[in-house]
């Protein structure tokens, strides 16, 4: 016999399998042989925090159905090839789906494999160097590899989201992602998952080429028939282009080829870091903090200021702020967390929506760089701000920072609080050198968050500059149905870099969709 129960529990009652079994025995009068959690979420809206758990209790026998289906390996060695450029979530999930559909993916990735990438990332702090081909944005696993691995998305495509989560589990992710309302994997677990995906692709007869940067498209009669690489190779086949939002050379190459792009808005701001204990106190309404049974608290804030959205972005509870530049003359920050979200800090991007037409309303000093066509004006702005940020960081690996309340009061910070940002912080008046278009709205956004959550606006928090890589500054136009580029057959712009995704899950969903459309046209 099985019974499904919807429970509203205190954190200590939902702490583990034993405490849950005790609750089920209390509720049903019978001790279960096994439990399977179907849904779990935290409700911290009231003074008392509850954990809502939906579970299935098994009383007579253990469950026979597996949590998720086994991964199916299919030999695609002799099958038609498709080129996948980029091994981020978009590219990897496209490659895995191509295999399911009987095509042979050839994945071309400019960066190194995920474990070698760890060394390049460590070198950013150890040697103060950024490898432009292997860093927090480039390399196997893409921008999502060293992240919080948050897997929630605003996508309404429930079935597709579930498929992606199952795919992660098939490659070693914790099955809790299937039932948690806010699933995440963690930066310490993601590389193993990504490595298993690569082994899967190669094991089925696909190819993965690292250190191989695409530098051109082969185009004949309005059809993309392959790519060229900086290593002098040519790969032939239709192309899924999943190069992410940081591959500025790709956008430049596309405009040189006359490929149709359109300018798109982005969001720009800073990383804000609080002590996690302070966020726990605010979110869980408890002076004593979260206690042993609740996870590091999260937050999301959204408001409007001066006609533009101001919002928190990509929050990393119990995480670290990291240097996410892709070139040595930039300063860009982002965030990541381990699976246990156990650090002393809570960080999140705080960004202001910026539309292409807004660029005319302020001016950034010329910090060098090549002139770009009009369609890349937003990308040019990102680059300029990142270079300006590095100048304000003293041209080293440190990042410029200011205490939050000082920023709101337009006051310099004489000393900074301790931070998770391991390259180090340099006190800097962000209110002074960042465009007023952004700083005035951030100020409003912080005040608005503090009205909802008293104590949020505090000098215990520090703002670190700059957060610019939030989404793609252009969209590579494609047909809504076939997902093919609007003028070029054989080209499938995919994922975040093409302007059709924001985050790991939505990039993965888009990768699968592009693979399906490509296979329908070229699968034979
Ligand atoms: P990317 O992941 O950017 O992958 C693009 C790949 O293409 C890269 O591997 C790159 O090296 C490769 N490439 C680029 N140019 C070329 C070329 N010319 N030739 C060959 N290869 C090329 N999202 C979440 O949902 N949850 C999170 O917790 C989260 N945390 C993040 C933390 C950090 C530090 C960062 C930077 C991003 C985070 N994101 C997070 C965003 C998320 O990572 C991206 O939305 C997602 O990775 C986009 O997937 P993608 O495949 O479209 O592109």
* Radius of gyration of CA atoms, rounded to a whole number: 24 Å
- CATH-wise, what's the superfamily of the largest domain? FAD/NAD(P)-binding domain
Order of strands, main sheet, comes to 13-14-17-12-20-18-19
Q: So what's the CATH class of the largest domain?
A: Alpha Beta
Task: Explain how this protein is built.
This protein has a seven-stranded mixed beta sheet with strand order 13-14-17-12-20-18-19. A five-stranded parallel beta sheet has the order 6-5-4-10-22, with helices on one face. It folds into three domains: 2-58; 81-261 and 478-522, FAD/NAD(P)-binding domain (3-Layer(bba) Sandwich); 266-467, no CATH class. The protein starts with a strand and ends with a helix. It is α+β, with helices and mostly antiparallel strands and 524 residues long. Helix content is 27%, strand content 24%. The mean pLDDT is 95. The longest helix has 19 residues, at 504-522. The protein binds flavin-adenine dinucleotide. Residues 85-91, 108-111, 136-139, 142-144, 147-150, 213-214, 242-244, 247, 250, 314, 322, 324, 334, 336, 469, 495-497, 501-505, 507 line the site of flavin-adenine dinucleotide.
